[in-house]
Fold this sequence. Notes:
CATH topology of the domain at 29-130: Endonuclease III, domain 1
CATH superfamily of the domain at 29-130: Hypothetical protein, domain 2
Distance between the termini: 47 Å
Helix content: 55-70%
Amino acid sequence: MTKRETAVVIERLAEIYPDAKCALNFTTPFELLIATMLSAQCTDVRVNMVTEKLFKKYRGPEAYAGLAPAELEEDIREVGLFRTKAQNIVATSNLLLERYGGEVPADREALVELPGVGRKTANVVLSNAFGLPAFAVDTHVLRVTNRIGIADSSDPLKTEEQACWRIPREDWSRAHHLFIHHGRNICVARTPKCQVCPITDVCQYYAKSLREAARAEKAKPKRTAALRSSGN
């Protein structure tokens, strides 16, 4: 897909998702970091339910650093992998206090050195907490960009690199949210709703599905003739 076609995709998605933004609730970079860590293999809706109580109970890294992981587990038990996440949150809070005075660094390399923080989480924090250009690749973004043709890789890092080459730097954050919304609403995992999608004319997945349908339709008479000649 060309950069011009990619721009068309982004503008059309922006028309149907004008309010696309981060779905996680937070008021500080630290809260977003914790919420994003909790969101792995869990819905944003579930995370927001958990953090509504969590952020009132624990106000900052100092509060988490003093906890035993088992104690935090009880507060986040409703999210998946809660034991591992509890350990990582406590360890990350301690490192933030030791290295950065309790502040979340606005630097990707520093962020990914924190326990439980990968590139996707780092990009989410950079983009939404600090307003820096970043393109986070989650399962929705990976699926949608590859279906459309903006990327061609099952690897999140390669998908990020390919998408960022086609998308202007100033649109990285917006595009990330648009692809998430499109993946949740129309370009869903099992049966995408191509019949209501606004970008089918430039979508490689849709073009491929049309070709496959045409081949299947063309093959029908041959199968019928073969059945007749066999006497069935």
